[in-house]
Amino acid sequence: MRPPRQTLRQAKASEEMEATEPMAISEAMKPGHVLIDVSASTKAKLWLFLSKTAAKNLGITEHDILVALQGREALGSTGLGAGIAIPHAPVEGIVSPFVLFVRLSRPIPFDAIDEQPVDLVCLVLTPPGEQNRHLRLLSEIARQLRSSEAVKAIRSAADQKRVYEAIIDCGP
Q1: Is 88 designated active site?
Q2: Which of 33, 63, 88, 134 is catalytic?
Q3: Which of 104, 138, 144, 171 has its CA at a distance of 20 to 30 angstroms from the CA of residue 24?
């Protein structure tokens, strides 16, 4: 016997519920996606580093990532203030969300909202057309990075594992 088919209304309700549920950071970021004491003296050099590193992990071209990041940043800085930036963009060729966290060895100018230099950078790349998922992931990351305890733990962590734990420790 066949299972009953979902009605259009049931499918829509299920989709809406999924769109409002938080997305755990650990779904998109793995321990190896945390890099500490990275040296980048300018925002442009940081973009190149992020693009190259993400491309290696995702198997797509760094050019595609760089263009997407620069295009998003042209709309307004992703520097949130307090030394934190969350550059993000949808990128063709990505099949699932990807997060790369970088703790810089020295803060760099970033055009952040508070005009303070940035030392903590959380790159978020998502497949095109998945805006709800993109926004849910950004929301979870921003929520965690607003925690002064988490940020203090990230900045003082001696290794990648402790940085990763401080970032994902908020998840649902």
Answers
A1: yes
A2: 88
A3: 104
